[in-house]
């Protein structure tokens, strides 16, 4: 029958579409949540000859329908002609749901209802109780229905439901995927290729996990999606270029610029080879490279890529917001290079083209304030920031995500001119807006950490601790427990506990900070050494002199390994080591002193330390 054939996938381009196999009788175990109607496991009774002909005609009409109205009318006739648990009805629900999703012509709740109805029929078929024996065609049909349910749940901001549907879909598809290199291009031996379906599921999983703030897991799904796409498309395909750039952008979003750089360079290589050096896609690649080089603090390369991107856009006659954004990027790069007058000149030109009270104009004044702040012109900086805030306030309802992000940048500029209360106020405002945006969970931890740090800096320690504790949990969920940002928040939290005279709690936080930084930054990074120093200070404050000396000794050794550039740090570390040792000896009784003298190796180290101090 016609409905037992291909069902379109919204997330895949035409090249990635693959025929859907004919579903067999056996299906998988029922999906526990949400509860659905109970369907009898018995097959539907045979239709009378006239009813069968009517069902056949309705099925053909539904298959031939192309417009949304025609499909809805044909579906109503098919629904009336078939039993409620007929698999053809399940496939019709799936096809109609995918069409409505792709066309954007229906509410996501209606699409979800169609997906759940399809799932209910497919799961109630005989043999569904044993998923291990379910035929591959049934598994694919069920996986596609789960994918549709996950996509609709995502559109309804039901992210945990979406994650459940999509994870189950992937579990069904994974055993059906070919081994790497087993199938090049084309169909599987059974007559269908599940890789396009798995590609769509992986992409949607990445979207859901990004919305949940689980950015590291989302990156893994995007990488797997790219690998699937590479196995489907011929080498050098232009579509691969866009996929590489998307993955590079995702890495840049979590500040992993080292991983982003080769991915974006690969995207540029693919687009240049397929579209030429002056294509619009190449312009997008070069602008992304400019962002990545800026993150790597390679500003000359960033400016070069930005200028090449603008040149291509202008050659295509591309103006408007995209070109203006590129010019603002160029101004920001020039500010980083210390070319403040050139940056201001560029920004003035953009301001003439931007509409009054537009988001673009607000960004111009923010960058202008950045240039002025770097020149220590506090009064002019504040005036620019006030203009930007007035514009942004009017956009809070129409573009809350962009406004919240802009407030974060404005707050950092208020910090530069020592307006800490204003900076904290804007960050709190931004955090309140982000908490109402489900897809912005990954930013909440960073903002909470910044608020906590500023409160700590201004002496409001008791107010700082709840923000820092909250930031740790949010950032671990978003970036993983070993991300360097988590280490910095632990370090600030330890400092807050020290200010409140809670050295034991501080020592726990400093130990966690050091553990994270050892992994993410390396044991010899200056920030890792500072965390070790803080841990030694906490043990010293607790009176645990043996532990304090142990960690202070590590600090001395680490700074010594840095060579002459760390001479002052080494001198201070040795002074603190001797101070702790003096306290330790003073705390001991006379009969214990012979047993606590340093070993010859430690004495030699102290002698070397003393020589270093004398030098």
Question: What is the secondary structure topology, with strand pairs?
Answer:
Blueprint: H1 49-64, H2 68-81, H3 87-103, H4 108-123, H5 136-155, H6 159-173, H7 195-211, H8 215-232, H9 238-253, H10 257-275, H11 280-295, H12 299-315, H13 320-336, H14 340-353, H15 359-374, H16 378-394, H17 400-416, H18 420-434, H19 441-457, H20 461-479, H21 484-499, H22 503-520, H23 526-542, H24 545-561, H25 567-586, H26 600-614
Q: Could you tell me the number of beta strands?
A: 0
Assign a percent range to the helix content: over 70%
Note the overall shape: globular
What structural class is derived from the secondary structure elements?
Answer: mainly alpha
- Rg result: 31 Å
Order of helices and strands: HHHHHHHHHHHHHHHHHHHHHHHHHH
Low-confidence parts: 1-41, 183-189, 597-615
The main sheet comes to: none
The CA-CA distance between the termini, in Å, is 90 Å
What percentage of amino acids are in beta strands?
under 5%
Counting DSSP H or I runs of 4 or more residues, the number of helices is: 26
What's the rounded overall pLDDT mean? Answer: 84
